[in-house]
């Protein structure tokens, strides 16, 4: 399926009458594009590409509704090139080759260059992407490939190396307001015939999640019922309740605080509630993923080492597949972290160590631990290191810490989950390292295995959890 070349005025007017609002309001020049200032400012790569009329292919990576299709069409119209469009959902190798042959013929007969826009290029197989390589290599077409998924995973390396990768960002709340206001006033939109209450505009911004298409679709649905769009009408039109949430105001901090403290307090249901509120409010999912990764070490640590693995995997899954599918990965991580045994021993350990360093308790590295891989090291006293693998239990008594902090104990594991096993191992290690005992017993009961599954809590642990004071603000 290929798109037509540049529309003439009559064709454009006819198409606008039946096209959705989001299509009618699509910017036609660089100056109409909202957002993406890092790509469109003076001297920015995309502006240089358009204004310099360079035949360079590009890969546009960004969330839905951020202007990937718009940018492709603007590149074509601004440089007065033929425009052809393929959707990777429906097109195959045959369609690709047909468009490329047309482009070669036009280039040879009239010198006309062609912009080939491939939407959702990540859905093309390796074979289909390979079919694009000759046309990009020989510049028979200017390829503009759009993807919502990480191109380093979804686009083949040869194609990516021959293209300029441009990352599009979600539109900001002010950007969405500009889009909505323009649609209400512009003749391509409602031409001043529809009025939207301020509360309804706020809700449109929240619903959009940085997606201009979503905001305009919701606006069109509500405006179809009345020439005055209220919050109630908008809610009814889009079948979503207004979430009282401002991503840049107090609610942002209150809701994320409630989310974190609910996970820390092991209330999985409350945590999922706050997570759902933030999803509906259009919170940046990358922000949520980062908070989960931090919490996995700050509030769980070695009580359940797999919590960090789950949080990092959810963050990576978000980058790989994007929203809305990645909401499942973030929800899974939330459930895991909420149910995990809790410990702030890692946080307390690093804070205590940092306090000593900031207080000047540093000192020099003991001589036997210093780098000895150079001539003359022994003459400088760099000798005497005892290689742990040569001793039973792989541990031997010797000084590791600088003199000012010898004997300082930073890490104090708790008694829940895997940390219960770690505390037994740690006690034995410290005795040997200080010379109080000669060998660490190689007993499975005291071996610390960070990747093992935490044992189910004992009755004593459950009683201790129930007796803990409620979470206090931090």
Quick summary of this structure?
Helices cover 48% and strands 6% of the residues. With 474 residues, it is of the alpha/beta class.
Describe the structure.
This protein has 474 residues and is an alpha/beta fold. It has helices at residues 9-18, 21-24, 37-40, 45-51, 68-78, 93-109, 126-130, 133-137, 151-154, 157-161, 173-185, 198-208, 212-223, 231-238, 250-264, 268-280, 285-300, 306-321, 327-339, 345-358, 418-433, 459-467; strands at 58-61, 82-87, 114-119, 142-147, 164-167, 195-196, 228-229. It has four domains: 9-167, P-loop containing nucleotide triphosphate hydrolases (Rossmann fold, 3-Layer(aba) Sandwich); 173-238, Helicase, Ruva Protein, domain 3 (Orthogonal Bundle); 253-339, Zinc Finger, Delta Prime, domain 3 (Up-down Bundle), CATH 1.20.272; 345-415 and 418-433, DNA polymerase III clamp loader subunits, C-terminal domain (post-AAA+ oligomerization domain-like). 48% of the residues lie in helices and 6% in strands. The strands form two sheets. The protein has a five-stranded parallel beta sheet with strand order 2-3-4-1-5, with helices on both faces. Helix 15 runs antiparallel to helix 16.
**CATH fold-level assignment of the largest domain:** Rossmann fold
Beta-strand residue fraction:
5-15%
Helix content: 40-55%
| CATH-level-2 architecture of the largest domain | 3-Layer(aba) Sandwich
Give the total of domains.
Answer: 4
Q: What oligomeric arrangement do these chains adopt?
A: single chain
Order of helices and strands: HHHHEHEHEHHEHHEHEHHEHHHHHHHHH
Helix count from the secondary structure assignment: 22
Measured between the Cα atoms of the first and last residue, the distance is: 57 Å
Structural shape:
globular
Decide which structural class fits the backbone.
Answer: alpha/beta
Number of E-type strands: 7
Over all CA atoms, what is the radius of gyration? 30 Å
- Low-confidence sequence ranges: 1-9, 440-455
Largest beta-sheet characterization: 5 strands, parallel
Question: Could you name the CATH homologous superfamily of the largest domain?
Answer: P-loop containing nucleotide triphosphate hydrolases
The spatial strand order of the largest sheet comes to: 2-3-4-1-5
The CATH first-level class of the largest domain comes to Alpha Beta
Mean pLDDT: 79
């Amino acid at each position: 399926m290929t798109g037509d070349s540049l529309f003439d005025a009559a064709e454009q007017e006819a198409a606008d009458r039946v096209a959705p609002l989001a299509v009618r309001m699509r910017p036609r020049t660089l100056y109409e594009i909202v957002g993406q200032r890092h790509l469109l400012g003076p001297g920015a790569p995309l502006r240089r590409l358009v204004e310099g009329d360079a035949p360079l292919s590009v890969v546009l990576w960004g969330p839905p509704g951020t202007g990937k299709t718009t940018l492709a069409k603007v590149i074509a119209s601004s440089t007065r090139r033929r425009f052809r469009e393929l959707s990777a959902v429906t097109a195959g190798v045959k369609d690709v080759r047909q468009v490329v042959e047309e482009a070669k013929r036009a280039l040879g007969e009239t010198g006309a260059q062609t912009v080939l826009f491939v939407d959702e290029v990540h859905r093309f197989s390796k074979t289909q992407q390979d079919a694009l390589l000759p046309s990009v290599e020989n510049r028979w077409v200017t390829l503009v490939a759009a993807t919502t998924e990480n191109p380093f995973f979804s686009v083949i390396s040869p194609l990516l190396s021959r293209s300029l990768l441009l990352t599009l960002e979600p539109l900001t709340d002010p950007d969405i307001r500009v889009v909505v206001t323009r649609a209400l006033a512009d003749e391509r939109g409602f031409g001043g015939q529809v009025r939207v209450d301020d509360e309804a505009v706020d809700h449109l911004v929240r619903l959009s999640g940085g997606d201009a298409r979503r905001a305009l679709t919701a606006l069109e649905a509500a405006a179809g019922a009345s020439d005055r769009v209220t919050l109630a009408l908008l809610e009814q039109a889009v079948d979503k309740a207004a979430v009282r949430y401002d991503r840049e105001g107090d609610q942002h901090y209150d809701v994320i605080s409630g989310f974190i403290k609910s996970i820390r307090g092991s209330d999985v249901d409350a945590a999922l509630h706050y997570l759902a509120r933030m999803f509906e409010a259009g919170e940046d999912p990358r922000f949520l993923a980062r908070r989960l990764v931090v919490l996995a070490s700050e509030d769980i640590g070695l009580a359940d080492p797999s919590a960090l693995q789950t949080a990092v995997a959810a963050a990576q899954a978000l980058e790989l597949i994007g929203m809305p599918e990645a909401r499942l990965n973030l929800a899974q991580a939330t459930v895991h972290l909420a149910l995990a045994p809790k410990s702030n021993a890692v946080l307390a350990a690093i804070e205590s160590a940092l306090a000593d360093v900031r207080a000047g308790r540093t000192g020099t590295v003991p001589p036997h631990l210093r780098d000895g891989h150079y001539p003359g090291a022994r003459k400088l006293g760099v000798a005497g290191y005892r290689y742990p693998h040569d001793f039973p239990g792989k541990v031997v008594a010797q000084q590791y810490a600088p003199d000012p902090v010898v004997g300082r104990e930073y890490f104090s594991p708790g008694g829940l989950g895997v940390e219960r096993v770690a505390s037994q191992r740690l006690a034995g290690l410290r005795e040997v390292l200080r010379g109080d005992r000669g060998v660490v017993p190689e007993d499975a009961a005291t071996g610390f295995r960070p990747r093992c599954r935490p044992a189910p809590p004992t009755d004593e642990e459950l009683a201790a959890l129930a007796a803990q004071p409620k979470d206090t603000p931090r």
